[in-house]
């Protein structure tokens, strides 16, 4: 399936026959940086940093997801479960993401939008005439994702213990790391391993859903202008790498 045709067909089916016309009306010259990737790759951290650097606004697709769940009176976990088989609310979230990308609803000099899918949706908006856009894909090793998760959920001591204890290198599967996490001498280690499995399951569920709905795999780097490996890098290092690339991409980014 051609992803651009898949996106257009799905929006027309679930949003309305005038969906594309309304999207086109949202397009402005507002510069937009789109950051996509799996959980724990540094998307939200870097999106906030870049928005601050350019004095722009930060938007997260997760925000749309949470608001959609609240409107329906269900938990985020329940909404994620329902979206495995239910169509409609997920398309509305993707359509709202495209409206953000268009720029008309964002009162700022620029915007940074992060989530699983904005890169490929940005490609579609580009086909409608949206310019001044940079599409980035973030990735890192499974081991790095696990270490970041433990630092966020259990603290710095847990991070150091895992860094020094978990098997080095990249395992064949995340399950190998989850089993190792479950045996760490930490309060909450088994629960952390369960949460890591759930996170990976949601990533894979989303990946399957986008492929079935639109015909794109959000991990396919053909949908992006730049692939950013955040493995072992601090936020400042990633920021500097992106800023250097943006300055080379177009004069616009050096003058904002």
Question: What are the salient characteristics of this protein?
Answer:
13 helices, alpha/beta, 5 strands, single chain, five-stranded parallel sheet, Rossmann fold, 256 residues
Q: Characterize the biggest β-sheet.
A: 5 strands, parallel
**Count of domains:** 2
* Category by helix and strand content: alpha/beta
Number of strands: 5
Question: Helical element count?
Answer: 13
| Helix-strand topology string | HHEHEHHHEHEHHHHEHH
> What is the level-2 CATH architecture name of the largest domain?
3-Layer(aba) Sandwich
If strands are numbered along the chain, what order do they take across the biggest sheet? Answer: 2-3-1-4-5
- Unreliable sequence segments: none
User: Helical proportion?
Assistant: 55-70%
CATH class of the largest domain: Alpha Beta
**How far is it from the N-terminal to the C-terminal residue, by CA?**
37 Å
State the CATH superfamily name of the largest domain: P-loop containing nucleotide triphosphate hydrolases
Mean pLDDT: 89
Classify the beta-strand content into a percent band: 5-15%
CATH topology of the largest domain: Rossmann fold
Cα-based radius of gyration, to the nearest Å: 19 Å
Per the principal axes of the C-alpha atoms, what is the gross shape? globular
Notes on the protein architecture:
This protein is of the alpha/beta class. It folds into two domains: 163 residues, Rossmann fold, CATH 3.40.50.300; 55 residues. 59% of the residues lie in helices and 10% in strands. It has a five-stranded parallel sheet, with helices on both faces. 36% of the residues are buried. The mean pLDDT is 89.
């Amino acid at each position: 399936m051609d992803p651009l045709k898949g996106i257009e067909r799905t929006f027309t089916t679930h949003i309305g026959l005038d969906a594309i016309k309304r999207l086109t009306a949202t397009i402005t010259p507002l510069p937009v940086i789109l950051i996509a990737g799996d959980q724990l790759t540094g998307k939200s951290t870097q999106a906030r940093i870049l928005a601050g650097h350019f004095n722009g606004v930060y938007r997260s697709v997760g925000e749309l997801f949470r608001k959609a769940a609240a409107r329906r009176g269900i938990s985020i976990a329940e909404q994620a479960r329902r979206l495995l088989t239910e169509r409609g609310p997920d398309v509305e979230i993707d359509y709202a993401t495209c409206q953000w990308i268009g720029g008309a609803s964002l009162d700022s000099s620029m915007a940074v939008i992060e989530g699983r899918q904005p890169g490929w949706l940005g490609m579609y908006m580009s086909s409608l005439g949206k310019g001044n856009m940079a599409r980035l894909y973030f990735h890192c090793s499974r081991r790095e994702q696990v270490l970041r998760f433990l630092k966020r959920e259990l603290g710095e001591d847990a991070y150091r213990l895992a860094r020094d204890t978990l098997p080095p290198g990249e395992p064949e599967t995340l399950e190998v790391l989850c089993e190792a996490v479950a045996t760490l001498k930490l309060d909450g280690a088994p629960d952390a391993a369960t949460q890591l499995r759930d996170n990976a399951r949601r990533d894979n569920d989303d990946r399957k859903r986008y492929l079935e709905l639109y015909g794109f795999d959000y991990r396919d780097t053909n949908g992006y202008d730049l692939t950013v490996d955040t493995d072992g890098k601090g936020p400042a290092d990633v920021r500097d790498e992106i800023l250097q690339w943006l300055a080379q991409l177009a004069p616009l980014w050096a003058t904002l």
